[in-house]
């Protein structure tokens, strides 16, 4: 894996996380998928191993702050366990915690960040609403100013770690209509009036905790405001850029796993007197899969290098996400096709990869929204 994007420190961390996954995740992942959950005890284990702290400030227990490729290393190695659901829930802090770590008050950072990085507390991001989807600028959850506190009413849906989380970065409307009236508040489990629904049943990500949140005049202290009032939309958009790069990497890893499974199966499966990998129709499928994966992975890394260098990459990261998700759509589909009937069986990794892949072109901004962003950046 070592190349011009990763140095020896990256590779050392990669080896450490791979050992963590081999010891604590892979032996149990099929059982957790079927159970629809995994033990909460995995969070402090990941915290102790230093995985949860990657990319966050050292002052609060993090490591490698600002190192885009170290974050990509963690994403790649955790996903090699073969479960998008495990990754999305265990690492929900990756989208929920950055607003607090970047823009929270010193007191808020001190109270929240170290405990989450140690795995003692779980963090979630709550933006999506039942009637809004990608239309973040028009969210409806309302936070009414009551002097030293807000009263929050509304709801959120499709929230990863929605039931388990202790802390939530919640997008609310504190001002007028549109993006200029959005703020972020830290909300906490147990606040009166804050409830969660039953776990949502999903096509994929089976062992991921996904839920609806309900707010009925929840009293939230002004000290829980993240950053400046009515500046939440900008924070959300900046957060999205890193999330979209992560989803491109997510898609590439699922593509790689599916390709490797299909290649091995095609080399071992015989039909009409020879391995099916020797039949032109299959070998050409595999050649196309390998080519698309190589192109997608390289493009994603090049966009990561732009972000590492501080170059504005709104358009490029949207392109990388769309290219990677289109690639993983193709590769996971073809992997199941190569496996034939066995690819439709739950005992096959490619069956789970096919299901877990489908969310990638929806989450973090849909394929269609990415094309809107790209079009605008092209002046269209």
Question: What is the total domain count?
Answer: 3
- Per DSSP, the total helix count is 13
CATH superfamily of the largest domain: Butyryl-CoA Dehydrogenase, subunit A, domain 3
- Total strands: the figure is 10
Outline the structure in words:
- This protein has 380 residues and is α+β, with helices and mostly antiparallel strands.
- It has three domains: 8-117, Acyl-CoA dehydrogenase/oxidase, N-terminal domain (Butyryl-Coa Dehydrogenase, subunit A, domain 1, Orthogonal Bundle); 123-230, Butyryl-CoA Dehydrogenase, subunit A, domain 2; 234-377, Butyryl-CoA Dehydrogenase, subunit A, domain 3 (Up-down Bundle), CATH 1.20.140.10.
- It contains 13 helices and ten strands.
- It has a four-stranded mixed sheet with strand order 1-4-5-8. The chain has a four-stranded antiparallel sheet with strand order 2-3-7-6, with no helix packed on it. A two-stranded antiparallel sheet has the order 9-10.
- A hairpin with a 3-residue loop joins β2 (142-145) and β3 (149-160).
- 48% of the residues are buried.
- The mean pLDDT is 96.
